[in-house]
Amino acid sequence: MPASAVSLVAFLGLPARASALASRVDALFITQLVVSGLMVGLLLALNLYFLYRYRRGAKVDRRPLEISEWKIETAWIVATLVTFIAFFFWGARLYVDEEKAPAVAYDIAVTGRQWMWDVRQPNGRREFNTLHVPSGRPVRLSLTSEDVIHSFYVPAFRMKQDVVPGKRVTLWFNATREGTYSLFCAEFCGTKHSAMIGEIVVQSPSDYAQWLASDATPQPDRLRGRELFAKYSCSGCHDQPSAIHAPSLVGVFGSSIPLDNGEFVRADETYLRDSILQPAKQVIAGYQPIMPSFQGVIPESDLLELIAYIETLNESTAPTAADAAHP
Ligand code: CUA
After folding, report:
1. Residues 6 or more apart from 54 whose CB is under 8 A from it?
2. Which of 256, 322, 15 is nearest to 154 (CA)?
3. Is the CB of 193 under 6 A from ligand 1?
4. What does the pLDDT read at residue 221?
5. pLDDT for residue 5
6. What's the confidence (pLDDT) of residue 147?
7. Ligand 1 centre and the CA of 159: distance in Å?
8. What is the pLDDT of residue 324?
């Protein structure tokens, strides 16, 4: 980054740039600011100039113009149109890159709750209002809310995402600079909204790996998922054989599911979540919509583990008779 750009960032009071996208966002923002400034400056200068030149009593030529006005009009319209459409494409490109996570991204789950950020690392380690991430690696956050709308906001990454209850959204970034950065909730979410702040800790991959492994009691996710599967009585209907006519969940994740309306849906994380919270929304062909909704019954953290557990179910990991006997 050239020195002039650094001083401009400081002059504008912008926060540190800590992600690959941050300098691109700033480049667009600063260019827009400069171009808009020039435009305003030009119009203002011309205004003042004509005000002065054609003031009352001034000896100037006031006959009608004899130049073709349409040429001036056309030039002005085309020039401004091209400039601002260019900004649109620039911004759209940035937006698409910001939305589309690379396939190799590293997944971390974040749940917003009045009033904290509840983070679950891939090995099950939990942290609150702090998010540790490795640098130089695309990280994808899977965001949900347990109660109201929150907004996950990291100024140093130039990134903000609404977190809506009943919905899972993703957000990705590639942190480029190690350090500690502010995390805010940017949506008014209740009396302690202003206290819903935290930190993003960007570490070198080796420091991060060390930090991740230092948790002495990582939850054995699968076992816990199985416990929850029994606790919320999922096993009563979905374990095979079962007295109740419910679809088996073995191998369901990633498969194509036939619905009773003749359509097909891919069983991804969103589908599994919807099936638990709004079972009547997409009913599998050949089954009755008898499953009750678990909206408000299963806390978000349990839901994440339950979904993670269902994702691991395949022929080789299917619960055995022994599991069923001692859940
Ligand atoms: Cu959460 Cu404001």
Report:
1. 60, 62
2. 15
3. yes
4. 61
5. 55
6. 86
7. 16
8. 47
Q: Among 288, 286, 284, 291, which Cα is nearest to 258's?
A: 284
Residues in the chain, pLDDT under 70: 1-10, 216-222, 241-243, 315-327
Q: Is-contact 19 94, C-beta < 8 A? A: no
Backbone φ and ψ of 215, nearest 5°: -70, 115
Edge to edge, the sheet with strand 169-174 lists 126-128, 116-120, 106-113, 138-145, 169-174
Sign of CA dihedral 144, 145, 151, 154: negative
Tokens of 230: 């029994």
Work out which ligand 1 atom sits closest to the CA atom of 193: 2
| Runs of H (alpha helix) within the chain | 3-12, 22-53, 69-99, 205-213, 221-231, 234-238, 269-277, 300-312, 321-325
DSSP string, 167-213: --EEEEEEB-S-EEEEEEE-S--STTGGG--EEEEEE-HHHHHHHHH
Is 17 a pocket residue for ligand 1 (Cβ < 6 Å)? no
| Integer Cα distance of 273 and 149 in angstroms | 18
185 lines ligand 1 (CB under 6 A): yes
Q: Left (φ > 0), alpha (ψ -120 to 50) or beta: where does 286 sit?
A: left
Sign of the CA dihedral with 78 first, then 83, 88, and 93 last: positive
Measured in Å, residue 118 CA sits from the centre of ligand 1 at 13
Ligand 1, atom 1: closest residue by C-alpha: 150
Report the separation in Å between the CA atom of 20 and the middle of ligand 1, taken as the mean of its atom positions: 26
